[in-house]
Amino acid sequence: MVKIHSIDISPPLLNSSCAWASDLKQLTELYESAHTGAVTTRTAKLNGFQEGPQHTVVFAAESVSSLNSYGYSPYPLRQYIEWTYALLTSSTQSPKPVILSITDSSPPLVAEMLLQIHDLRRRLKSHFLGQSSSIDPSSLVAVELNTSCPNIPDLPPPSYDPETLAPFLSVLAASFKSDPTLTIGLKLPPYVYAAQFKALVEAVAQHSFDLDGHRINPIAYLACTNTLGSSFMFSDQIVHSDQPQDALTAALPTGFGGLAGEAIHPISLGNVRSFAQLIGDHPDPSIHEMKIFGIGGLTNASAKARMHEAGAHVVGCATLLGRHGVKAFEMLASV
C-alpha cells in the first residue's frame, strides 16, 4: 500500500488517464479488477471535447507501443462526476480511489472544475453520514491536472513552459487551501534536459506553506510521463485490420501523434529517476512528501520492477490496457 496524501493505493498499480477509461463500462471494469489499486478517468474538460474520426490509436507491429491522435474525452466533467458518485456508492467491491483527470484551456475554467469536484466530495460525505459504511467515499476522490497532452493544435502543453503553467498551479493551490484533504497530482510530459525538471520542481515548491505547524505542498504526486508528441509511424509499422494499407502512408489520419508504450520506456524511466533525485535533494521538507507515478512502457513485470527501482511509488499503464483490456493488470501483478 502507498499513501498519497489522503488516499491509499493498494496494490500500487493503476491505469493512467487514457481512452480506455472513457465511459462507465470501462471505468467499472477497471474499478472491479482485483489488480488495480485505484482508477484514473480519461481526461475531461469542463464541457467536453469534440472528438472525430481523426482521433484514434494504432499499435506497433514489433513492440508493445502505440501512437495516438486523441485529444480529451468527449464527455464533460459533470458526467465523470456522476459516474464517480455511482462507483463509490453502488459498487459491491472494496472501495478504492478514483482519480478525476481534468484539464482546460484557462485557469478560470480549471477553477470551475475544481469547484464541481469539491461539490462531489460534499455529496459523498452526506451519503456516508446516512450509511453504516466505515469508509467515507469522499476521501477516495482525487484530482489530476493533465498539463501535458501533445495533440491539441495551437495549445502546447503548459508543463513545457513554467510561465504558462504558473497560473494553473495557483488555481490548484487555492483549491487545496480551501480543503487540504484533497489529493492533487500533475500529469507531466516527457522532459528531455535537466533544466526542465528543475523548473517544474521549483514552480511547485513556490506553493508550499505552513499548516498546523507542518510544511505542506498542494501537489501530492507527479505522474511521469504522458505520451511523446510529434511522433510518426508509417502504415507498415503497425498492426493492421483486414483492410489493405499503403506501406508508405501515415499510420494516423493526423500524421503525427503521441507515442506511448514500450517505445518511450527509457525516457519515462529517465523522467522518474530525475524527479526522484530532485525531490530527495530538495531543501523544502514538503517536497519530500511528493510521490511519483511511473507511466510509460509498463508492458511486463520487468518494466514494472524497473519503474519502481527508478523511484516510482505507484505505476500505471495505458498501452497494455488498450491491447489486452483489464487482463493487463493481472499480467503485471503476476510477479
TrEMBL record:
Tell me the GO BP annotations in alphabetical order: 'de novo' pyrimidine nucleobase biosynthetic process; pyrimidine nucleotide biosynthetic process
Q: Which cofactor does it need?
A: FMN
Q: Start and end of every Dihydroorotate dehydrogenase catalytic domain?
A: 3-331
Q: Which domain of life is it from?
A: Eukaryota
Under Pfam families, the record lists: DHO_dh (PF01180)
Instruction: Choose one Gene Ontology CC annotation of this protein and give it.
Output: cytoplasm
Q: Which UniProt keywords apply?
A: Flavoprotein, FMN, Oxidoreductase, Pyrimidine biosynthesis
| Single annotated GO MF | dihydroorotate dehydrogenase activity
Q: Pathway listed for it?
A: Pyrimidine metabolism; UMP biosynthesis via de novo pathway
Q: Output this protein's name.
A: Dihydroorotate dehydrogenase
